[in-house]
Design goal:
The complex is a heterodimer. In chain A, 17% of the residues lie in helices and 29% in strands. By secondary structure, chain A is of the alpha+beta class. Chain B is elongated. The longest helix of chain B has 32 residues, at 3-34. The chains are: A alpha+beta, B alpha+beta.
Chain lengths: 474, 329
């Protein structure tokens, strides 16, 4: 075997260059420690969802693949008109008029209010028709010329129930409608990873380099490889927690099967659990203000909430730019108050970056860096931002409600009992490090393999108060 | 006191009042007539959340980059005409341009579960509701928004679609017209079995038409009229129909090999596109090759007739579609 070819030197003298060309020089080894060109790999810092759930004990253990939890919407709801009068001035002169709603949420005798703020009282029980329930209404106003605008009688116009007004004497009781909780059901996914090493590799001698891990320096290749696999395994789990795709349909039926005909069951990842979606190009303070307000507006417990804004490098930059842009737009010009410029004389330093925002409604938005938006597979494959060349994924902003409700964290990891994290080895000629063994082996292969398995997922209980804001280029 | 003099002014005022009201009434009616309310609808969430929860989800159609800039669907003229009123700024005012840019950076159209209604009617060439019309143009320019429900259903990448009742009506009319035209052409082909075979051969390049009865050819064409009347009409009206049918029959019988868009006979490339092959077979310089191919196709047709006769189906053999004529030009 020849490692490299002969080099013929046509020069008539020998120089250091010709020796180098002939690969005859040996460079000095600056350091035996590996320089990580893509950054030193750290485990927990790159796994924010694992850290926010499993890392702080927000874990629920279940006995089945499916889990449920009850949810409840507002006690009050609005009803949209199905059909109503299309001409004239309905209800003028205190005449009766009719509106059809999809259900009979409104009760007889109650006063309802239209989207324009016109009040009407319900007379009698509604009549069931093919399209819904037809209500007999009369305008409630001291002015007999008041009427219901036609815009409030068209399909989709919203009405809400207010109160029941009765006569001073001999009034009769009323009935009421009520709301029951419903249930959300999701599934956990089964994730696996494995690796195999040959018998020789497993007992390989010391490498010529010092291999850095978060466990310290090691010089055995097998240890380093095992550490890499463990880290990749945790990263793959994190990928699923963030970007996981639900594999079952609305009724819970799984159509996807593996090669053995077994259903590929997986619940949605965090992003898929968030139903509110929006896009942006350049972030503005106004956009953040409106976004946060819309999330919490009208909620009975929606005061002074702390919202975690998970984002990447691009998003963090945009957030800072939006805050400073707002200051400039509002006429703030002061920069020498040590907030943005520190030092003195020739040693000035521009600093001061925004990482938090207090909303006029009392909520606080805290920016948290999520490395997944910069380094995950999705980020690496993502289109680039035309100005910064950062992945567009790096600009993703997830307004995540990480509050606790009734003592329970809103974001939890759900795991199947006794399947939280399984790690086992199939020993052949060798037994992987950390596993007990004897002379009896599982197979005849000159080597061994190690396997990981986890059955779990992430659950965002109250998903209506989170929002996924992405930077989109078409 | 002149009584007539006293009576005249109120009469004219009355007439003017009546005319003014008639004018207003007519104008309002025109506006109503021009009204066109469309609805932008979202793709339903496929999660198994309760319907009440799904109804609360709001997916917004907001600013996006196109060509490196936040997308602005308006022309310069439209900006000058519509934006001053919308921004409450004069065109000449300092910061007008920045305000327009900011409008499209901050534009947000929340699309609730039931959809977002927009008034896009035009009156005297101007939008009845400027803001809604701009939002409509903005939505129309996004790749995430399908122009109609049919396109939306056929492509899972779309997140929203525009439900335009007038557009649906227009589509129905277009569909009716194309079906009518295709039906009339089909009636013509019913009397011209030779051309009918050519048309089917071009519509179905892989079909060996000369093995089919004329009855079957007509039934196949009937299906085409029903399923894709536009393609049927375009094909039936093609001026080089006979040549294309010949080329397709060469391909269907394996005499010519098609690799990608190229047609290859033995080691001769007839052309890299269909129109190049048409030019090749019409060139007198290539008549020897063309005659050779015609002879081969004739041979295949004769042998298939014999097979049909041996199968005891002489009707098929003698009423076979006259693609033979197509190839014996």
């Amino acid at each position: 075997m020849r490692l490299y070819n002969d080099v013929f030197n046509e020069e008539r003298h020998t120089s250091s260059n010709s020796l180098a060309n002939a690969l005859l020089t040996k460079p000095s080894l600056l350091s035996s420690t590996i320089t990580f060109l893509s950054g030193k790999q750290q485990n927990i810092g790159t796994l924010p969802l694992t850290l926010m759930t499993e890392g702080v004990g927000n874990v629920e253990t279940i006995d089945d693949f499916f889990y449920e939890y009850p949810v409840m919407d507002s006690f009050d709801k609005t009803c949209s008109v199905i059909e109503g009068p299309t001409t004239g001035t309905p209800g003028i002169g205190r005449q009766f008029f009719f509106l059809t709603y999809p259900d009979r949420w409104f009760q007889a005798g109650y006063t309802i209010v239209s989207q324009s703020g016109i009040y009407a009282t319900i007379h009698g029980e509604p009549e069931q028709v093919s399209t819904g329930f037809k209500y007999k209404l009369r305008i409630l106003h001291s002015n007999p010329n008041m009427y219901m605008p036609l815009a409030d009688c068209v399909n989709g116009a919203r009405f809400a129930s207010m109160y029941r007004l009765v006569g001073v004497d001999f009034s009769k009781g009323s009935t009421s409608s009520w709301v029951s909780p419903s249930r959300v059901r999701h599934a956990v996914a089964t994730l696996r990873k494995g690796y195999a090493m040959s018998g020789n590799a497993a007992v390989q001698k010391v490498t010529s380099m010092e291999l850095m891990t978060d466990q310290g320096k090691i010089d055995l290749w097998s240890d380093f490889e095992e550490w890499q696999h463990m880290m990749k395994w945790r990263e793959e789990c994190e990928n699923y927690y963030t970007y996981g795709v639900q594999t079952y349909d609305e009724s819970g039926v799984v159509q996807l099967k593996d090669e053995n005909g077994q259903p590929l069951l997986a619940g949605p990842g965090l992003l898929e659990q968030i139903p509110n979606k929006d896009t942006y190009t350049y972030l503005t303070e106004n956009k953040i203000k409106n976004t946060v307000r819309n999330l919490w507006y009208g909620m009975s417990d929606g005061d002074n909430r702390v919202v975690t804004l998970m984002t990447g490098t691009g998003g963090r930059d945009e957030f800072d730019r939006a805050m400073k842009g707002s200051l400039v737009a509002d006429g703030f010009r002061q920069f020498n108050d040590k907030l943005f410029v520190s030092g003195s004389g020739k040693n000035l330093q521009l600093s001061g970056f925004f990482s938090s925002y207090q909303h006029v409604d009392g909520h606080v938005v805290n920016v948290i860096y999520n490395p997944a938006f910069d380094r995950s597979g999705v980020a690496r494959a993502s289109r680039r931002h035309h100005k910064t060349q950062l992945p567009l994924e790096s600009y993703r902003m997830v307004f995540l409600d990480t509050s606790s409700y009734d003592g329970q964290s809103n974001l939890v990891m759900v795991q199947k009992r006794n399947r939280e994290m399984l790690r086992w080895a199939v020993a052949g000629s060798t037994i992987p490090k950390g596993f007990k063994g004897n002379d009896t082996r599982a197979n005849d292969v000159d080597g061994a393999s190690v396997h990981f398995l986890k059955v779990g997922g992430i659950c965002l209980r109250r998903f209506t108060t989170s929002l996924d804001l992405t930077c989109v280029a078409e | 006191m002149n009584k007539k003099g006293v009576g005249k002014p109120p009469f004219f005022i009355f007439i003017a009042y009546v005319l003014k009201n008639i004018f207003i009434f007519v104008e309002e009616n025109k506006k109503n007539y021009m009204s066109n309310v469309i609805v932008i609808k979202p793709r339903p969430l496929l999660t198994n959340h309760p319907i009440e929860i799904k109804m609360q989800a709001v997916r917004s159609l907001s600013s996006f980059f196109k060509g490196g800039f936040p997308y602005n669907p308006l022309s310069k003229e439209q900006i000058l005409e519509w934006m001053p009123e919308l921004l409450n700024m004069e065109v000449t005012e300092k910061g007008f341009r920045a305000a327009v840019e900011n409008y499209f950076i901050e534009i947000t159209i929340p699309i609730p579960f039931a959809g977002k209604e927009l008034q896009i009617g035009l009156y005297n060439g101007q939008p009845i509701n400027v803001e809604d019309y701009i939002k409509y143009l903005f939505a129309k320019g996004s790749k995430r928004v399908a122009s109609n429900e049919v396109a939306f259903r056929s492509d899972a990448m779309y997140e929203f679609y525009i439900d335009d009742p007038k557009d649906a009506e227009k589509q129905r009319q277009i569909s009716y017209n194309s079906t009518l035209e295709a039906s009339l052409l089909l009636a013509e082909l019913d009397k011209n079995s030779e051309k009918a075979a050519y048309v089917l051969s071009v519509l179905n390049p892989d079909m060996i038409v000369h093995n089919m009865t004329i009855g079957n050819i007509k039934l196949e064409l009937g299906d085409w009229v029903r399923l894709d009347p536009v393609k049927f009409t375009t094909t039936a009206k093609a001026h080089n129909l006979k040549d294309m049918a010949f080329i397709n029959s060469l391909g269907a019988t394996g005499i010519v090999t098609k690799i990608g868009e190229s047609y290859i006979y033995q080691d001769i490339t007839l052309g890299n596109k269909l129109n190049e092959v048409v030019a090749y077979i019409n060139s007198p310089a290539n008549s020897a090759v063309v005659n050779q191919m015609k002879a081969k196709i004739k041979q295949i047709e004769v042998s298939s007739q014999i097979v049909n006769e041996e199968d005891g189906n002489p009707e098929d053999a003698y009423t076979a579609a006259p693609t033979t004529k197509a190839s014996s030009k």
